[in-house]
## 1
Amino acid sequence: MSKINFTVFIYNVMKISNNTNINFTAQLKKYIPVKHSQTLGSEYEDKDVSFVELNPYSDQDIKTLENISQDWTAGIFAENIHSDAKKIYDSDDELYTQSSKFYAITSQKNNLDSLDSNKILAICELKEENKNGFLHYIQVNPDVIYNPYFEYKRLGSAMLDTLKSYYDKIELYSFPSELVLDFYKRNKFRVYKNGKYYMHWEKESK
């Protein structure tokens, strides 16, 4: 089977899954370390969590994103991510669907074909073009952020670090906040050209 025909085959199978019981659900990309504290006042240690790619054609993954958008009451970006994924779920635009990527960090290790939305720690949406990405949204679970004893920390940075392992260049428009700008600057993003909120990170050439 030629490369082109194989691509068309995969795309058509994914479209069929939208209307049948066939489903390709979240895929584990890798395990990544994040900072985790067992109890209030204890030291943070590395803990492996799952970095997964969600499939916008999957009934289960769409439902997971819907649950997140409803449960994360302070997470407007989660609502936007679910909305964009749902548009793809209903779309016939092949190019649009192939370039949109949805990633999540979850404490769940097993049964990733049925993601537990309560274990999702962070999510993001990215538009992919070759080895470059444009980051549309990144959202950390507000319940994690406002947890009294900060069970996890640096989840946003962990998400960015993992994306950097897959892409040569990442661009984004930052939320207009000095706090958010500082976050991206700490993660080696720089203001691009003359736009204060247009930022980019680029892999250093070896």
## 2
Amino acid sequence: MEIHTNGDMQYSGKVLIDASKGGYTGNSYGGANSLAVWHSAGDGDNGIMITRADQTTADGDLLGGIGFDSTDGYSPSSVLEASAFIAAYAAEDHGVGDKGGDLVFGTSTINDDDDTASHEWMRITDAGNVGIRTTAPAAYLDIRNTTDDGTTNRTMLRLHNDRSDDAEVNDWGPISIDFDVENASGGAKTGQARISAVSAPTFPF
């Protein structure tokens, strides 16, 4: 272990955090990875907490994150500059009765420089809405294109079904995706929509 004059510490080896202090003789390497956390799944002992340490956390403030990167090029000083990151933001001014948060996912694109901000691609809001390429999804799933690059027929959602309904060569061979709308109270189907593509039969029969 190295302790530097600026207070930084550097440790060579694996780290096991065992809150139970009981250890586990079946695995002397503490999970066989660089960092292992053992817990009992109880309150105060069930994972890792990343906490913003101030008394003025406001709507939109970064609560913390995890970054993934390499030592080829500079290793970023911010998780928001990592090759890929997961981060959390306050969804409101925080207080005793106000703890709303958003979870975001982002990456750097090919040829992005080091030490530059990565791109947020997906956000799960405090309301449970999921936005792809939008920070303010207006529905349970909101997919938007915010870049006008002249492409008019852009694929924004792709649904793939490996099953072709056992179509024979002389059938029309439908390939379909079904959407069911169900009544939340009774579970009975109240509507169904189908998107289908068909291939013409081979001639001559």
## 3
Amino acid sequence: MGVNVAGLIRRGSSTAMVEGTSTCGGLVGENLEQGTVLDCVAAGHLVMRPLCRLGEGYSVGGLVGVNRGGLSTSYANSTLDVLLASGGVCEGCAGGLAGALIQGATPFFSVFANFSSAVLSDQAVGCGTMPPAGAQVVSWEALTHKATFKGWDMDEVWCMPAGSPPRLRWQNSQPVAVPGADQTVTIPYEQARATVWLDGSGSYD
């Protein structure tokens, strides 16, 4: 998503490769003052190619490029690259979780980053005008321990496969069908279950 103006992004996940020249995030480019990101995960590859024109900078974050709003119970497990043109020099913000945190943003609650980057060391937030309360950079090992995610809803929202970071429960709710046969499958979704009839032409496993 480019810009979240005043929406609630909930239980979102992205493993996309994202490229940008000014602002980009693994899930959201910019989360504005009335926007909220809740129970989300980004585990993709971000490539920032700043133009380095006069007066322009860049902001890149594993989950959000620029955060001005609410951000809770979410994490990023991303790879970040900043590629400057030969001889290019420009200022920018890069963080494992958010590139920039703007004053007025709701304090973070229980958000984590684990990332691979040649341009970052242990920065959860690249630039900010207020402390990134609740934002932590954690090791891969910590990201796979349930104890790290105190206060997260592990019953209805998240699950913890052995040796893996949290997954949203809907990601484990894939319908199973037998190719080539007419059939009915039941698909769990949050608290409800939907029954779908499939004909042989559209079945898959």
## 4
Amino acid sequence: MFINVFIYVFVLLFMSDRMVFYWLCFMLSLLSACKYQTATIMTEKSLKDLTVIDSTYYLAQNLYTGYVTNAASELRLIDKERFQVIEGKLNGYCLQWTKDGVLRTENHYVAGRKEGPQKGYHLNGQLSYSYNVSQNHRQGKYYEYFPDGILQIEKTYEKGQVIAEKIFDIDGYTLANFKIKDGRIYGFRGSSNCINVISEKYINN
């Protein structure tokens, strides 16, 4: 302790004002970094150890902050999930896996609500769908894929409403391609599951 005080006094006596200023800034940045690292060390609890009221997570009647794991065997095709909670609310990514360890969903939350990128995966590990949530609404591009990775559906959202959509068959040919403006549909509609839709590959042939 005495040595630390001596070094501190020595630095203040023999350094210029500008050097002292820079030195103090450096020390403060180190202290802030250490504090941040300490604060970000989070515990991990099983869901059964927590109390959930109105989508808010409590540990011993206190708002919980940390990671949560859940052996979610009662969920369809889901065996395990892990997510982050800050002050009782979901924040960050919620991941769900099958019993074989295949990642099925990867959803991002802010303050208990979906916000940001949302993804799902087929059982073979290929991306199944992806879209973005902004202010509790789907926003921008939505993509859905066949299990082999080929694009099946492409939608464009504006504040949760579809304003454009394309549907493709397994060979990549367009089954539907339309836009919605002022309540009117422009283009041609169809469905990859509708047998009476004429694909562009048959029109071209």
